[in-house]
Amino acid sequence: MIKLKVNRRQNALQIDLAAEAASQRKNRLARRLLWLNLGFYLILSTAELTIGYWTQAAALLADGQNNLTGIFATVLLLVGLWYAQKPRDNFHLEGHCNMRP
Ligand SMILES: [Zn+2]
C-alpha cells in the first residue's frame, strides 16, 4: 500500500515535470517569435517614419506612428513571458505562469 502511494506521487511528479518542460518550450518559442516580430516592427516603423518625414506623406507618418503601438505591445508581451518563465519560489508555489486573482 505504501509503495503504491510512493509510485503515484512519483508519477504525479514526473507528469508535473513534463508539463513544466513543455510549457517552457512553448514560452521560448513564443519569445523567439516576438523578438522577430519586434525586429520587423522596428524596421518597418523606422522606414515609414523616415520616408514619411522626407516626403511629408501623411499616410506613411500615420502608419509609422501606429507601428510604435505595436512595438509597445510586443515589449509588454516579452516582459510578461519573461516573468512567466521564472522558476517557482516561496511566493509562487505553482510557478509564475499562473495568475489567480
Ligand atoms: Zn515569485
UniProtKB/TrEMBL annotation:
<keyword id="KW-0812">Transmembrane</keyword>
<dbReference type="Pfam" id="PF01545">
    <property type="entry name" value="Cation_efflux"/>
</dbReference>
<dbReference type="InterPro" id="IPR058533">
    <property type="entry name" value="Cation_efflux_TM"/>
</dbReference>
<dbReference type="GO" id="GO:0016020">
    <property type="term" value="C:membrane"/>
</dbReference>
<feature type="transmembrane region" description="Helical">
    <location>
        <begin position="67"/>
        <end position="84"/>
    </location>
</feature>
<protein>
    <submittedName>
        <fullName>Cation transporter [Lactobacillus casei]</fullName>
    </submittedName>
</protein>
<dbReference type="InterPro" id="IPR027469">
    <property type="entry name" value="Cation_efflux_TMD_sf"/>
</dbReference>
<keyword id="KW-0472">Membrane</keyword>
<dbReference type="GO" id="GO:0008324">
    <property type="term" value="F:monoatomic cation transmembrane transporter activity"/>
</dbReference>
<feature type="domain" description="Cation efflux protein transmembrane">
    <location>
        <begin position="35"/>
        <end position="100"/>
    </location>
</feature>
<feature type="transmembrane region" description="Helical">
    <location>
        <begin position="33"/>
        <end position="55"/>
    </location>
</feature>
<keyword id="KW-1133">Transmembrane helix</keyword>
